[in-house]
Amino acid sequence: MTPFIAELIGTMLLILLGDGVVANVVLNDTKGNNSGWMVITTAWGLAVFVGVTVAGPYSGAHLNPAVTIGLAIAGKFAWASVLPYIVAQMLGAAMGAFLVWVMYKDHFNRNNDPGAMLAVFCTGPAIRNYVSNISSEIIGAFVLVFTVFYITGAEITPTKVPIGLGSVGAVPVAFLVWVIGLSLGGTTGYAINPARDLAPRIMHALLPMKGKGGSDWSYAWIPIIGPIVGAAIAALVYMQFH
Asked: What is the domain class of 3-240 according to CATH?
């Protein structure tokens, strides 16, 4: 498996399971309808575990353009590979969102709430205030990327066994995303990942769903710019200590 394919498949699994839990919670007549925020945040954390476990040995399992850019800024990832990784992440996220639509098509057909349908695919603010919204995404992405630097560099002493972002490393990354969702996700839905939001938002715009409404493009720049800025700040702060 090449790094490109690993990023594509890993991100696809991330979005299939992450957007899938939102569909299960917010769409009409599902088994998990109205099961709440704890279910959503827990499943997103476990979705990260799945994606990282599959992609980790082959690509390092970035699954997120903000992580890729942050690692490149810190000198831990080649800039020449940034664009291919982001392309793979975007394609994988689009595929994952498409599979969620296939999986829950009957429930989309029974849904009459455009906001719920949009929420399956992408994030939105609890209170629309662009300054606060982008600040939330910056802070959330900073916590994600800054902590990832320490996870990827960890070792078990004295034998110096590395803990990367493979199967073992997937556990702390899953907990990291889980706690970000629980603690910081209430304002914007914690995209903290441009591919996670943009590619599924595009799929929402393209897929046929009766009464789906608009894709809220006026907000779409927040979960793109915010995570990238947060990742860049995390990289610069990390570099001050190393």
From this structure: mainly alpha
Which DSSP category does 162 fall into? E
Residue 184: partners with Cβ closer than 8 Å, 6 or more residues away: 136, 139, 140, 143, 190
Domain edges within the chain: 3-240
Contact present, 164 and 148 (Cβ < 8 Å): no
Task: Quote the tokens at residue 120.
Answer: 């399956």
pLDDT at 163: 47
Take residue 150 and report the two structure tokens written for it. Answer: 């320490």
pLDDT over 70 (residue 53): yes
Specify the long-range contacts of residues 104-108, CB closer than 8 Å, at least 24 apart.
104/20, 104/23, 104/24, 104/27, 104/30, 107/23, 107/27, 107/28, 107/29, 107/30, 108/27, 108/209, 108/212
Confidence of residue 57 (pLDDT cuts 50, 70, 90): confident
Other C-beta atoms within 10 Å of 106: how many?
12
Taking residue 155's Cβ as centre, other Cβ atoms within 10 Å add up to: 10
Averaged confidence pLDDT in the chain: 93
